[in-house]
Amino acid sequence: MQPRFVFLTGGVLSSLGKGIGASVLGALLKARGLPVRLRKLDPYLNVDPGTMSPYEHGEVFVTDDGCETDLDFGHYERFIQTPTTKFDYITTGQIYQSVLRAERRGDYLGATVQVIPHVTQAIKDFMHNHLDPDVTLIAEIGGTVGDIEGLPFLEAVRQMKYAMPDRVCCIHMGWVPYMTTAGEYKTKPMQHSVKELQRAGIQPDILLLRCEGTLPKTVVDKIGLFANVPIPRVLMAQNQSHLLSVPLAYHKEGLDEAVVDYFHLKAPAPRLDVWKDLETRMRDSEPVGTLAIVAKYGHLQDAYRSLLEALMHAGLHEGGQVTLRWIDPDEVDDAFLQTLDDIDGVLVPGSFGERGHQGILSMIRWARETQTPFLGICAGMQFAVIEAARHLLGWEQADSEEFTSSGPLVIRQLTDWDQQGEKKSYHAHDGLGGTMRLGAYPCVLSKGSRVHALYGQENISERHRHRFEVDIRHRDALTSVGLLTTGLSPCGRLPEVVERNDHPFFVASQFHPEFKSSPLGPHPLFCGLVRCIQKRWHEAKANPKERVHAVRQPQ
């Protein structure tokens, strides 16, 4: 038995939602009892997105085994409830890197190394490697059909389709725009997109028509005719009010049934009760409290995609969604702090670089002094430690080695660490790519601590992405001013969690909890934060005067 391959391409424009489409198809097939796996082929020349700007790429999602990937991998894991690995992500940079290494080793026996067959064979090898024989692999091809970077990937798909016509299904997603002035949907962009795909030698088997509303039958029929795709396989992918509505909408349209029929599989109808329940809870949830997210890249919310999803998951679990207020740390000053009467919680996510340094510290101090629920993540934990060192220990020059080489450095650069049993080290001349503590690491929580109560267990595993660590040598000093280290690496050298026991909720983690949250398994740290925000909001609603007084008169 051989695996089945479903390739998902996109056309007309970018940001169509191919990642969501692949994730939802995976969830629907899994709900029918079929084993699935998701992969992505990204055509850019970067080896991985680890050194790319958040403004260019958005979030960098990290897998358990330490692979830095596209944000779509967060969707993959959240929808199919299965961890992805480094074997599920490939870029043109990785492909060319492997081909050039093979050429240097002499693997090609003196042959002229070319895109065809050597690069395309490397892509096909990637698609076949590390697969169970009965699995359905859903592979998203990044970018848009017609991009020059994507041509080798399309050629590899064409060759696989030629070699295994019954084992390869090609789904093409494209935008069908609505012309307000003409009062009609226009089919030409989608037709041309399919023609471009056909020019690469690929005939799509299923079409997904992204659209704002219900398409007239005449539009669907016309696209099917000119794309040479049977009408039952020309499916609408309408905009939905919320992400959790997409699985039910795509199932209603018949996406999973079309794939099952294409492969002639015998699979029971999907069990979608859990998705129906989530959709109902999302539709009925009401705003309960306001959370300030102090973020450097707040105007590009894709830079925090998993974080936003994790907050939504916690809201579903706790019975109400928090309203988000994005705060640029560069805008925070004393006058700004007087405008926060409506804030019920503060979250400082991960970031790199010194910009916004002082504004972040001011917001953390405000949250601490006003007893406002606070969660710090990665750099957010490091800033929480710096804030305590400066304002409670009196170390006015306390800082991170990331920003300075002088003063009491409570945050130090990591130079040696263990990753998945392999010893790693960092030296400045090595460059930046892949030189962080990446992936899942164990953490031991202190019994009796808040985080221990939230997790309900002592030993946990969470994912990391950082190059700097809290210096364990300052643990006792920080404890003396109420900032407790309640999560440590098993060796006891690396602080992973800090919290305050004189505060309703003041928790910060060196790891990224958002990477392990899902609609069916909300993360305990986010649930704890949202629960405290809701409690504060209800109390303030009952006594609004006391709330204003508490905010404006720090302790």
Task: Walk me through what this model shows.
With 555 residues, the protein is an alpha/beta fold. It folds into two domains: 4-277, Rossmann fold (3-Layer(aba) Sandwich), CATH 3.40.50; 287-414 and 436-542, Rossmann fold (3-Layer(aba) Sandwich), CATH 3.40.50. The chain has 19 helices and 25 strands. The strands form six sheets. It has a nine-stranded mixed sheet with strand order 13-12-14-15-25-24-23-20-21, sandwiched between helices. Strand 23 (483-488) and strand 24 form a beta hairpin. Helix 1 (18-31) crosses helix 9 and helix 4 (92-105) crosses helix 5. The longest helix has 19 residues, at 524-542. The protein is globular, with a radius of gyration of 25 Å. The N and C termini lie far apart (68 Å). The model is unreliable at 549-555 (pLDDT under 50).
**Bulk shape:** globular
Q: How large is the radius of gyration?
A: 25 Å
Task: Return the CATH architecture of the largest domain.
Answer: 3-Layer(aba) Sandwich
Work out the number of β strands: 25
For the residues shown, what is the average pLDDT? 92
Task: Please mark out the parts with pLDDT under 50 across 5 or more consecutive residues, or reply none.
Answer: 549-555
> How does the major sheet shape up?
9 strands, mixed
How much β-strand is present in the residues? 15-25%
Number of helices: 19
